[in-house]
Structures are given as C-alpha cells and as structure tokens.
Write a structure and sequence with these properties.
The chain is α/β, with parallel strands linked by helices and 352 residues long. It contains 16 helices and seven strands. The protein folds into two domains: 180 residues, 3-Layer(aba) Sandwich (Rossmann fold); 125 residues, Up-down Bundle (Zinc Finger, Delta Prime, domain 3). The strands form two sheets. Strands 4-5-6-1-7 form a five-stranded parallel sheet, sandwiched between helices. The chain has a two-stranded antiparallel ribbon with strand order 2-3. Helix 8 packs parallel to helix 10 and helix 9 crosses helix 10. The longest helix is centred in the last third of the chain and has 26 residues. Bound molecules: zinc ion.
Length: 352
C-alpha cells in the first residue's frame, strides 16, 4: 500500500497521532461552536490533508458512529450513508478542495472567486459545507486578498480548512483569521506501530529515521526504489571518501532519490556520528546502508582528536541543515549547486 491508495475513500478516522486535534474539532462541532476557518499546520508527512478530508466527511455524515483509534473512542463517519458515499467518491457538492492546479506554482484568484461562490450558496444536503485549501501557503497575493474577504464575512454553515506545511509563509492577515490546529510528529512507538501494520516489518527504523518520524513521508519512501537509491548514494559518498568515486560520480546518484532526501540522509547520518564522538555510544546499526560509512570513522583514544572531529562534524551538520532550508525555501534554489557544495564539503571533512 502506498500513500495514494491510503488516502482513498475507505479512510475516515484520525491517524493515531491526531487524536487531540480530532477531539478538539469534534467537541466544537458537536457544540455548534466550530470556527469559520482553521489552519491545519505542521510539517509535511503528518497526514494533515487526510485529517481534513476525513473530518469533512464526518461533519456531513448522516449516521456518525464511533471507532477505537489508539485506545480512544472517536467519532467518525459511518462510511455508508448517502453523504459518506458521495464524500468518499470525492464528488459531494458540499465538500470542495482547492489546490494548486497542474502546471501552476500558486493558488490563483479565480480559484478563490469560485470558492467565495461556494461559501455563499446554500448547502445541497442541508448539513454543513466544507472547503479544504491544500498548501494554503501557496496562495498568491491576489488570491490571499480575495480569501481575506471571504474570511471576513463568514457563512455560518460553511467551514474552511486550510492545510499548510509552511504556515509561516501564509499572509499574516489570513493566518490571524484562522484558528490554528498544530500537528506534531508522533512518538517513535506510535509511528512504528502504525507503519508496521501497513508495511510489515521491513526497514521501518530506517524509514522513520530518514523521514524524521513523519509517518506518511516514511510511507512514500517505502514505495518505489527509494531504499535501493538510498543505499547506492550512501555507498557513493563512502567511496568518495575512500577515493574510489569523484564528487561528480556521487552527485550523479542523487536524482534517483531527490536532493532533499539525500540531505535528510546526510543529516541523520551526521547526527549519529556526532553522538558517537561525544558520548562514545555504540555505532552499531541494523541498517546495512550505513555500515560502510561507519568504517570511515576511526575511533581514537585521544579526547582532543575526537572532540575536534565532533566539532567539524557539527559544523558540517549545520551546513547540511541550512542547505535543506534553502532547498525548501520559496525562492528559487539551485539544487545542483547546493548539492555540489555540500558534497565538496564532505570530501574535505577530516574524519580521523
Ligand atoms: Zn455517513
């Protein structure tokens, strides 16, 4: 199963790490006190979009029921009534989604005008209406202004769920008119149990580490040939250190897994090495992809040497983190250039 099949109609309950947010909205909805607009904020891969879709269906369900999720009873949609059927098929007229259109980089004003019409018209089912705005930080200036008007003139029956991985990039005036729902990365055990139930036992730890404990990102990585690409890349930068590969050859291995994932691995790997240098913690790993890299680090009894290695690793780590930020930034980053400079820095790093 991958993320896309996971997001299909069968799914209408919160994910195990979303219970607080779900309960908060459920209580407000039951009391007729839902805010006009919510901002579902948190990093990518936490299932915020799935949450919005599931909650929208639950709001419209004619016969809501309860379900146990991670030991808690939660109110969910029945999955069977007329509203659930239409909602599950993605064609309920009272649930709409706005997202960046194909070939575009932003959400445009025409889309928000269309949304404004949806907000003022009456509900087909007589129940609530919900509009979900995916990647709300990608609203362009005009679209954000148009949305502001809609937010200023709420329609009691209609609720807006704005979803964003980068809430800080959303225009402040829009942000301040939404009630914020923060989503956090789950505890390791929660994420692990959830992934294991879907994928079985293989590579769960590596996936969670590489995804920085973001379960849906881990699920995406599990699909395709990502694991293999990752192993090749890690071996590639190991070979680079041993003089068996050039920077260009290692660089050529990055497109297969993508620059941001490559930086994620480097970052995870470096933090392990730093911990090892500082605490002498065991450098053992069940993940064979790291084995070659670990052999590069020669243990030393000289505390000064170890500390000096740790400092240069920490400096490099901060550069990798900065590169990750640059890659994810809204300005136009140059991935090739960023990767070249990071790999060059790696080649210069003293590890013994
Ligand atoms: Zn239903």
């Amino acid at each position: 199963m991958n993320e896309s099949t996971f997001s299909t109609n069968s799914f209408s309950a919160p994910l195990p790490w979303q219970l607080d947010q779900w309960s908060q909205l459920s209580r407000a909805f039951a009391a007729g006190q839902m805010a006009h607009a919510y901002l579902l904020a948190g990093s990518e891969g936490l299932g915020k979009s799935l949450f919005a879709e599931s909650f929208a269906r639950t709001m419209l369900c004619l016969k809501p029921t309860t379900k146990e999720v991670a030991g808690k009873e939660v109110r969910v949609s029945c999955g069977e009534c007329a509203n659930c059927q239409k909602g599950g098929a993605g064609n309920h007229p009272d649930i709409v989604q706005i997202e960046v259109e194909e070939g575009s980089k932003n959400i445009k004003i025409d889309q928000i005008r269309w949304l404004s019409e949806f907000v003022i018209r009456s509900s087909h089912s007589g129940a609530a209406k919900v509009a979900i705005i995916q990647d709300a930080h990608l609203l362009n200036g005009n679209a954000a202004n148009a949305l502001l008007k809609t937010l200023e003139e709420p329609n009691k029956q209609t609720h807006l769920l704005l979803v964003s991985d980068h809430p800080g990039r959303l225009v402040a005036t829009v942000r301040s008119r939404c009630q914020k729902l923060n989503f956090q990365t789950p505890k390791a055990s929660v994420a692990k149990d959830w992934l294991e139930a879907i994928l079985g036992g293989s590579n769960i730890e590596a996936l969670l580490e590489a995804s920085e404990m973001r379960p849906l990102t881990a699920l995406r990585l599990a699909g395709g040939d990502w694991m293999e690409g990752r192993a090749q890349f890690l071996q590639g930068i190991c070979d680079m250190k041993l003089g068996k590969k050039s920077t260009q050859q290692a660089l050529a291995l990055t497109p297969k897994i993508g620059e941001s994932d490559v930086l994620l691995h480097l970052s995870a790997f470096l933090s392990k090495l730093i911990k090892y240098c500082l605490t002498g913690s065991e450098l053992r790993d069940d993940d064979p992809a790291f084995e070659g890299l670990y052999t590069l680090l020669k243990p030393s009894n000289d505390k000064q040497i170890t500390q000096s290695i740790a400092s240069s690793l920490a400096l490099f780590y901060s550069e990798v983190e900065l590169a990750r930020k640059q890659l994810a930034s809204a300005s136009n980053p140059n991935p090739q250039l960023i990767m070249e400079s990071i790999l060059w820095r790696w080649s210069q790093l003293e590890l013994s």
